[in-house]
Design goal:
By secondary structure, the protein is mainly alpha-helical. It has 9 helices and no strands. The chain has helices spanning 2-11, 13-40, 47-57, 71-91, 99-112, 115-143, 150-157, 163-188, 196-231. It is elongated, with a radius of gyration of 22 Å. The model is unreliable at 247-256 (pLDDT under 50).
Length: 256
C-alpha cells in the first residue's frame, strides 16, 4: 500500500511539471516573438537598417559584409522550432479533443460570460493556427537562411505569395502572445499585490495596450514589405546592397 501511494504521489507531480514547462517555453517564445517583431520592423527605418540588422545575426561584419554565416539563422530557427513543438505538444493536452467537448466549452463560455475563459479560448484557437502556419514559416527560415533581407523578404511576401500566411500569422502571434503573457502573470501571481482583482484589471488593460501596439507595428511593417515587394516584382531574386557594398558577393554569387 505504501509503495502504491508513493507511486501515485510521484505521478501526480507530472501535471505540475508540465505546467511549469509550458509556462517557461511560452514565456521564451513570447519574448522571442516580440524581439523578432522589433528586428523585422527595422525595415521601417529603411532598407539599409534592415540589411545591417540581418547581417549582424549572420556575422557578416566578420567577413567584410560579404557572405557571412547564414547557418546561424538556421541554428536559431531549429532551437526556436524545438521549443515551439515542446510548448505546443504540452498545450494540446488541454484542448477539447472532440466536437462534443468543444460545444460544451462554448456553451459554458456563453453562460458564464467570463472574460478570462474567453481569452483562453482565443488563445487555443490562435495556438492551433500557429501550429500549422508557424511551422511553415520557421521551416522556410531554417531551409533558406540566406534569403532574408530587404528585397529577399519583400519578394517572399509578394512574388512568392506568402503575404496571406504572414497576415494571418501576424494576428495569431500577437493575440496569442499577449494573452499568454497575461495568463502567465495571473497564474503564477507575481503581480497580485494587496488587491489581486484590481491588479488583474490593470494587467488586462496592459495586455490590450500591448496587443494593439504590436499589431499596429506589425501591420505597418507588413505593408512596407508588401510595397517593396510590389515595386521590386520585376526584379524578383535580386538582392539588396547598400551604398558601398555593391561589389560584395555572396557564396552563391548573388549580390546582397
Amino acid at each position: 500500500m505504501k509503495n502504491l501511494l508513493e507511486d501515485i504521489g510521484s505521478r501526480s507531480r507530472w501535471p505540475a511539471r508540465l505546467d511549469v514547462t509550458q509556462s517557461v517555453t511560452g514565456l521564451a517564445l513570447a519574448l522571442f516573438m516580440w524581439v523578432h517583431l522589433v528586428l523585422v520592423s527595422s525595415i521601417l527605418l529603411g532598407k539599409d537598417a534592415m540589411y545591417y540588422v540581418t547581417g549582424f545575426f549572420e556575422l557578416k561584419f566578420l567577413t567584410g559584409w560579404t557572405h557571412g554565416y547564414p547557418i546561424i539563422v538556421s541554428i536559431i530557427g531549429i532551437i526556436v522550432f524545438a521549443i515551439f513543438i515542446i510548448h505546443a505538444g504540452i498545450a494540446l493536452r488541454k484542448f477539447p479533443i472532440s466536437w462534443r467537448q468543444h460545444r460544451i466549452y462554448r456553451d459554458q463560455m456563453s453562460m458564464m460570460k467570463h472574460s478570462d475563459t474567453n481569452l483562453w479560448y482565443w488563445q487555443a484557437v490562435t495556438g492551433f493556427v500557429m501550429f500549422f502556419l508557424g511551422s511553415v514559416h520557421v521551416y522556410v527560415m531554417i531551409s533558406h537562411p540566406d534569403q532574408i533581407g530587404p528585397y529577399a523578404s519583400a519578394d517572399r511576401f509578394v512574388s512568392e505569395n506568402f503575404w496571406p500566411l504572414y497576415l494571418v500569422l501576424l494576428f495569431s502571434v500577437e493575440l496569442h502572445g499577449t494573452i499568454g503573457m497575461y495568463r502567465l502573470a495571473v497564474k503564477w501571481g507575481p503581480f497580485d499585490g494587496k488587491d489581486p482583482r484590481k491588479n488583474r484589471k490593470r494587467l488586462k488593460r496592459l495586455k490590450t495596450t500591448l496587443t494593439f501596439a504590436f499589431l499596429i507595428i506589425g501591420i505597418i511593417t507588413f505593408a512596407t514589405y508588401v510595397k517593396i515587394g510590389i515595386d521590386h516584382r520585376g526584379s524578383a531574386g535580386e538582392r539588396y546592397a547598400p551604398p558601398g557594398h555593391s561589389s560584395a558577393m555572396l557564396e552563391g554569387g548573388e549580390v546582397e
